Request: fold
Amino acid sequence: MRDIPVSQLTEAIERLCIEANEHLPEDVQCALRDCRASEDSDLAKSVLDDIIENFEIADAQEVPICQDTGMACVFLEIGQEVHLTDGDLTEAVNEGVRRGYAKGYLRKSVVKDPVRRQNTGDNTPAMLYTEIVPGETVRITVGPKGFGSENMSMIRMFKPSAGLQGIKDFILEVIETAGPNPCPPMVVGVGIGGTFDTWALLAKKR
Reply:
């Protein structure tokens, strides 16, 4: 059994909130550059050039890639041999988000009530997802989920007769319906299988 104080998670999440908003993952950078290299449309080339220039500036100057710095989605893969000590896990996660968004001068987007719309002022509470896995380590992933993409999300229950083609048709329908509304570049996450409450999580993990 390995003891890990939750304060270590707070420190890591604080750092990751800033890094995730300032530095685009290398695989995403490569995908965007590959798209630019294979694009025929002059307009699309121009847009992709702007996107590439934007993430290069953000990376070099350590500023947010986008003004929408998102709702913090925190994924914890907790080893079953780990004992988290010295505090409440959820509060430790929220404190990391609170510090990261303040230290990084990141926009606070979270509201206390979806109808009254009063901002919490520190981007908490975070969306916290935990998974118990083998081992004695904790793996942390922080994904700032902007609402230009979140607002375009859709879920559908299929009849068995829909088959693979029905799923493909729905994905294309969602993309066409979204049109230019999601913040570019648009990355489509798809979750299939499980129950109603798991599909969105599977798509978000992608």
